[in-house]
Amino acid sequence: MTHLSDTRPRSRWRRGAVAALLLSPLLAWSLVIPGSTAQADLLNWSGVQAVTTSTAALAPGESSWLSVAWTTRATVTDWSTTVTAPAGVTVTYPTTRGGADTSLYGSATLAGGTRDFTAFKLSVPYTQRTSFTVTVTSTYMGCTGLLTCVDTLLTGDRSLWAAFGIKANTLSTTVTVPVLPAVGAPFTQNTTQVAVAAGSDAFSTISYTGGQTDLAGFTVKAGVLPAGLRVGYPADGSASTLNGGSTLRGRATDYVALRFGTTGVAPGTYVVPLTISYTAAAPVTTVGAVTLVVS
Amino acid sequence: MSSPDVRRTALGLAAAVLLLAVGGCTSAAADASAEATSAAPSAAATAVPADELTARIAAVEFARQCAVTETAFAEESAITTDLDTRLAATGLTHAQWKDWHDALAGSPELVAQLAEVSAPGCA
Fold this sequence. Notes:
The structure holds two protein chains of two kinds.
Chain A: H1 7-32, H2 40-43, E1 49-50, E2 63-71, E3 77-84, E4 90-92, E5 115-123, E6 132-142, H3 147-155, E7 167-177, E8 187-189, E9 193-196, E10 201-210, E11 216-222, E12 230-232, E13 240-241, E14 253-261, E15 268-279, E16 283-294
Parallel strand pairs in A: 9-16
Antiparallel strand pairs in A: 1-2, 2-5, 3-6, 4-5, 6-7, 8-10, 10-14, 11-13, 11-15, 12-14, 15-16
Chain B: H1 3-39, H2 52-68, H3 77-89, H4 94-103, H5 108-118
Helix pairs in contact in B: 2-3, 2-5
């Protein structure tokens, strides 16, 4: 039998054991419950990250749907993204989710090792002539990637999620939106010729397609008319506005209606000058024409 | 405490942490695993296998993912129109794509196939 001839080693072991016992629950807790540490990046142990931190370019005055792509190491679900933009830039979300946020295109689940994107519309004012950044904030339920964890995540039985450490994560990413001058004509008049019967007085439509940017207050009225020809506008107004509203949206097609009274003209071909007005970065008035074929 | 005391404390601490952590994980995982087994079948058991059809879908998806973030769409619906146009060009339907997409999370084969198709990276 071995005797401890010195009491000092025994007391040192005792002090160490007491200290270990007092401190161990604290450290063990942080190991058993992943994500309980204070550092924000450790909460993102699913490995979610943005693949792209720059969107397609927009022009001043443009409204378009942009995308940010994401990838993840471990499967996540319940994905929700919101966007914070500078003053003057409007954010619109897909109607499929009620308009309060957006999610991944395929579904609210991003499978580990795959990639998907979130889409949202930005409307940039004409005064925004330089590139800017938006903050894209995504929340999702994260998983460690272990098979049982993924299985539990996918079954949707949320009562088990806490036991597997599946919990909500939030990731904020700064994304750059490049701004470049608009390219191409501000709009295109699609209708070049209108056919009407002689002696008639009815509305005909003239179609327009927007260029890259939105044109507010878009109106069309006839200029100096050929002798005998009369023109009228909806609601007896002084000009025609677009059927879909006052703005000709970029790359959208809409039409105006003009009533041509031909009781005073003989059958033939007439050129009707048009005055087209709208506001882009500033008010614009330009001229166009439509050929009227009376038969 | 003296250096030997510190070492002994550290060793004791490490041992206690190890025992608690392993015990906690084992207990929680065993309980939850038992419940999960009884609650629903494993996703891996019903995983969709990869084949020639899924390879074609993966190729379309990879190309689309490369292009979509560089495109400004005029309308929300144009995003889906773009996808459907790409699918139709290779004889695929939106329904096939959707089924494939929804199967990804539970199919390591599909994920691996997608990774292989995506290996060259976006141009």
